Every structure is written in C-alpha cells, then in structure tokens.
Automatic annotation (TrEMBL):
It comes from Leucobacter manosquensis. The lineage of its organism: Bacteria, Bacillati, Actinomycetota, Actinomycetes, Micrococcales. Residues 14-133 form the Purine catabolism PurC-like domain. Residues 456-511 form the PucR C-terminal helix-turn-helix domain. This is PucR family transcriptional regulator. It holds the Pfam family PucR.
Length: 517
C-alpha cells in the first residue's frame, strides 16, 4: 500500500511568489502549475536522484553541469530526476552560469520536466522558507478542514437516520462516494445519490467479501484507470458487521484518513445498534411462533407490532429447512431481502431449527429462493394460523423426505406421500371392510366374554412382540398378556411369528380405529 501523502502545494503557488522572481523557462505544459510540491531540496551532486523523495523541487547552481557534453548526458540527468519523482528543477544563474545551459533546457522541454530560472539576488534559503510557509498554511487549512468535517459527520450521526446521515455528510466533505455494506457485501448505505448509477455494485460486493474472507481489517483496490477504493472492516475481531468502502483518486492525506477513521467508528456503532435491534426482533419472532403453536393468536398478533412488517393474514405455509455446514452467503442475503420486503412473511427459530411462516401468496418466491441455492426444504400444506402446529409437523415430514432425495430442492407436503400406506388404505371402503372381517373373531370373543384380547394384541404389536414392555404399559402380568396373545392367534387362526401377519393385523387395527394410534 502506498504511503500516506502529507500536505502539498501546487508548483504554481511557489512560482507566483513575486518576491522570488522565479521564471519558468522549460517544461511549461498545461499541467505544470498544478504539479504537487511537498519539499524543496538543494543539491550540487552530479547524481542527486538517490537522495530525493517524490514531490520535491530540486535547486542547484549547476556546478556539475559542465560534465554534460551531449544531449544524451543531459537527458540521462533529467530522466533520473523524473524517475525519483521530482516535481521541478530550479537552476540559479550568476554563479557558475550566466544562463541555464541549453542542453538542460532542451532535455527538460523534451521530457516535460518543469525548469525555472532562479535570479542571482534570490537566495535558495528564501525559496525553502517560502515553500515551508506555504506548506504550513496548507497544513493549517487541512487541520481546520479535518476538525470541521469530523464535527459535521459526528453531529450528523446523532440524527434519527444516523448511519445514512453520517455517510451523506462524509461523502459531501470528501467529494467522493462513500458506501457501507453488510458482512455479505450488500450495500446498506450509499452517498451521494447522483453517483449511484456509476457505482460498481458487484465490484464492491466482491471485494468486500474477499476482504472479510481474508481476515484482514483494511485494504486498497485500484483499477487500471487509477481510480479505486479504500476498504475497512466494521465491527470487532470475530464479529465483523460490514465494510466501509470509500472511492479514492490518489492516496488520501492525513486529514482524509482521520475522517475515514471517524466514519468507520461511527458506522461500527450504528451497525452494532442495528444488530442489537435485529437480535431483539429475532427473540420476539421466536416468541410469536411459540404463541402461535400454543394457539394464543391474539397475544401473538399484539407482540408482532414492532417485530414484523405485517402479521400474516389468511392461510399460511410453514417452511422448515436445515442450514448446511458451508452456507452460501448469498442465501442469507436473499433470505433477508425476502423477509424485509414481504409483508405477511417472517423468519424465526423453534426447537433450534430455522423456519419461515408466510402467507400462501409468497410460496412461489420461497420456491425460487431454495431452488436457486440448491437447498432442501419442507413446505407444509396451507393451514390457518390456529393450526400452525399441524403445519409445522407437515413441514418437518416434507423436510425428512427432501433429505432422502438426490435433488436439493424444496419438497411440498402431500398426505398421500407423507402419511404412509395406511393413510392410503383408509380411503378405500373395501380395505376397512376387510379389516373388520379379519378382526371379527377377536371382537366377538371380547364382546361375548367381556374379555380384553384385542387390547392385549394391540399393545403387544405396538411393542414389536416384547411381552415385558407391553405388559407394563397395559398394567397386567406378562403371563396374562402372553395367554391373551395366544388366544388371539387361536381365534384368528394365524401365525403371529410371521412379519406379514403382524403387519396385516396392525394395519387392520389402525384402519378400524377402535384403538388409539
């Protein structure tokens, strides 16, 4: 990263100081006057370039110019100065030369390095002191600008829309666009609005994510055109809330860097505040779901006033999904956008798993979201809010089926698919009649002898033929249970050791609905 640039003045400011009587005699291009000056240095070395810093004005009496015999010698000397970042060359006359050597003038003109003549009566120290005075004034002006800008941005952050107001004020003071993204790279604040059409949104998003993924706190990105942006993460270590991105043209000076730091600090505070609000709203949403599951609809609706955009109305669907180990950040971003922009839809968590409750009209958007990201989900049938518990059970059944499919996509609940074979048989009158005929001998026996053979058979089958567990549940001795089961086998004339027989009897008991599930 480039070093922070200190205050500079323009070359024209120095040359226009009338008391110095400096005259520009070469390299007088249109941009010469605006070239930056940060220091004035005096040297009589044959090659002073290794000892010079960028944005320096070099002063010399030309004591070593006598060694230049050709245009190539003069060109090499000037090129070394240009490579060192020298802003301009000043040559004094009246000591070693009555006029600046033509070879030097020609080389400066050819290579576009500003060259000015210093008259005999102007001491180099006067030029150095004048430049220092101009730089000091510029430093004082930048300090005043910095303090006023920081005060204005801090005051703006106290407004109701604190983060947005601070970003707008900072952009106005800097003259560049300023952008704040969330941790997924999505732009949450931007200014000025007139620059929005030119904002490279995808570039900002990509670089913001890359900065966070690399685990660094700041970075600078530059394009081939020379424009770029400064990036700085917002938040604290291990809890990044977003990224501050500021357009830049060239390297910012200390005053601008100070303003950048203030904006980053204020943005962090504002995002922390928003994060706290979102956390509180998440807790409220979880409580709303619990109230709906408890059929406390009026209380849930009252609690939703500040937590939801709008409480769902009419039939709703419940969506249950499992978060993968490596979640695409864009899914969370898209889900947040869907949540924020869809009245009657909200996300929550229950039983440590996420879910979505939404009016049925949002179902197409929900399908598109999960399909686009290749995530499995279970979607319930349309249910009333009073029956949210049933909708949640349906969504969980659908999610289980989604987990067993090869295609990662949402699966919608279907009774024919999710309630099994017995549910299908329940809709067939012939199946129920066959079940009643199968169990008739046992039921006739119980009715005639006031016995409990059917109850014993049901309990024994429910416990997979385990006599001890079934007898404990039924409250009878295991020998009594075993005797009743043997009686059932004799009455039905079946082999209870056969799994097919057990399955058929269990289905018959369920279809005739004389015993609880």
């Amino acid at each position: 990263m480039q070093a922070v640039q200190g205050p500079t003045i323009e070359l024209g400011e120095l040359l226009h100081q009338y008391q110095l009587e400096l005259a520009l005699i070469a390299g007088a291009s249109r941009a010469a006057s605006s070239r930056p000056v940060q220091w004035v240095h005096v040297s009589e070395l044959e090659d002073p370039a290794p000892f010079l810093t960028p944005r320096t004005v070099l002063l010399t009496t030309g004591a070593r110019f006598g060694s230049m015999r050709t245009d190539a010698d003069a060109g090499d000397y000037v090129q070394r100065l240009i490579d060192a970042g020298v802003t301009a060359l000043g040559v004094a006359v009246g000591l070693h030369w009555d006029r600046v050597p033509a070879l030097v003038v020609s080389a400066c003109d050819r290579l576009d390095l500003p060259l000015f003549r210093v008259p005999y009566d102007t001491a180099f120290i006067e030029i150095v002191q004048t430049a220092a005075r101009l730089l000091e004034a510029k430093t004082r002006d930048r300090d005043i600008w910095s303090l006023e800008s920081q005060r204005a941005v801090a005051n703006a952050s106290l407004h109701r829309d604190g983060l947005g107001a601070a970003v707008r004020e900072a952009a106005s003071r800097l003259g560049h666009w300023v952008c704040v993204t969330d941790r997924f790279g999505r732009v949450v604040e931007f200014a000025p609005e007139r620059a929005r059409p030119d904002l490279p949104v995808e570039w900002v998003r990509r670089e913001a994510r890359r900065l966070i993924e690399r685990g660094v706190s700041a970075g600078r990105i530059e394009t081939e055109s020379g424009t770029g942006m400064q990036l700085q993460t917002l938040g604290r270590q291990g809890h990044v809330l977003g990224v501050l991105a500021i357009e830049e043209r060239g390297v910012p000076d200390i005053a601008e860097r100070a303003l950048h730091g203030l904006v980053a600090a204020l943005a962090t505070v504002q995002l922390e505040h928003r994060s706290g609000i979102r956390s509180a709203q998440a807790v409220l949403r979880d409580a709303i779901v619990e109230l709906l599951l408890a059929e406390q609809l009026p209380l849930a609706e009252r609690l939703s006033t500040d937590a939801l955009t709008r409480f769902p109305r009419g039939p709703v669907v419940v969506v249950r999904y499992a978060m993968p180990d490596r979640l695409d950040p864009t899914f969370a971003e898209d889900l947040q956008s869907l949540d924020a922009g869809s009245p009657g839809l909200f996300t929550a968590t229950t039983h440590a798993a996420p879910l979505i409750v939404a009016e049925s009209r949002h179902l197409p958007a929900i399908r598109r979201l999960f399909t686009a990201h290749g995530l499995g989900a279970g979607i319930s049938d349309r249910v009333a809010l009073e029956n949210l518990r049933e909708g949640l059970m349906q969504a969980e059944l659908a999610l289980e089926r989604s987990a067993t499919t090869a295609v990662r996509a949402p699966v919608e609940y279907s009774p024919a698919t999710h309630e099994g074979v017995i549910h299908l048989l329940d809709g067939l009158p012939e199946a129920k009649q066959r079940a009643e005929l199968l169990l008739a001998p046992v039921r006739h026996h119980d009715l005639r002898h006031d016995d409990r053979i059917e109850e014993a058979l049901t309990g024994w089958l429910a416990h997979h033929g385990q006599t001890s567990a079934a007898s404990t549940e039924l409250g009878v001795h295991r020998h009594t249970l075993r005797s009743r089961v043997q009686t059932a086998a004799q009455l039905l004339q079946v082999d209870l050791d056969s799994p097919d027989t057990r399955a058929e009897l269990w289905a018959a008991l369920r279809l005739t609905a004389r015993t609880p599930d």
